[in-house]
Amino acid sequence: MMAIIAFLLGIFSWTLTEYFLHRFLGHVYGKNTPFGKLHRKHHAEKDYFDAPINKFKTAIKVVLIMGLVGNYFFGILGGAFTVGFVLMYGAYEYLHHLLHVKAPVTAYGRWARRHHFYHHFEKPTHNHGVTSPLWDIVFGTYAKPRIVRVPRKFVMRWLTDGHEKIWRSLRSDYSLRGQR
Questions:
Q1: H-type alpha helices, 102-163
Q2: What is the three-class DSSP state of 129?
Q3: Distance between CA 82 and CA 68 in Å, rounded?
Q4: Under a CB-based contact definition with an 8 Å cutoff, are residues 10 and 85 in contact?
Q5: Nearest to 170 by CA among 110, 96, 84, 130
Q6: How does residue 180 score in pLDDT terms, banded at 50, 70 and 90?
Q7: 3-state SS assignment for residue 149
Q8: Measured between alpha carbons, how far is 11 from 15 in angstroms, rounded to an integer?
Q9: Is the pLDDT score of 32 beyond 90?
């Protein structure tokens, strides 16, 4: 039972880490760090993501350090925490990529896209959580997305019919603005 709690705590801890990395290293203090530079590029270029191998190398380092330290001090509970943390990190990376390249198929997917693209295109000082709004709510950076006005030069392929018309099912969530 304690291992399950440690695993769930690892998942929960990733969501807080995700929020702090995104908000503080991506937007506030770390603009000249490697993470900050990649993050700025992600905001500036349509569909830019760092190479998966680079993310994998970083994840391996984190797993080794966190796993060794966690196991040393907490035994199996440290290992369970690390597994939860790393699995949630993987889920975050997968979800984040899907938000940019695939149309939503669930209510959560629709919510996550609006929440995330509101951050990208409307209020970059808000909605730093990609997987959850929890920490944005706790720290006062949550903004309920209205219609997200997507710049034409950044329009996601899944959003339109190919003729610059937003799919009817998504028109209550998005509009297009600016020149192509």
A1: 107-121, 134-138
A2: coil
A3: 9
A4: yes
A5: 110
A6: low
A7: strand
A8: 7
A9: no
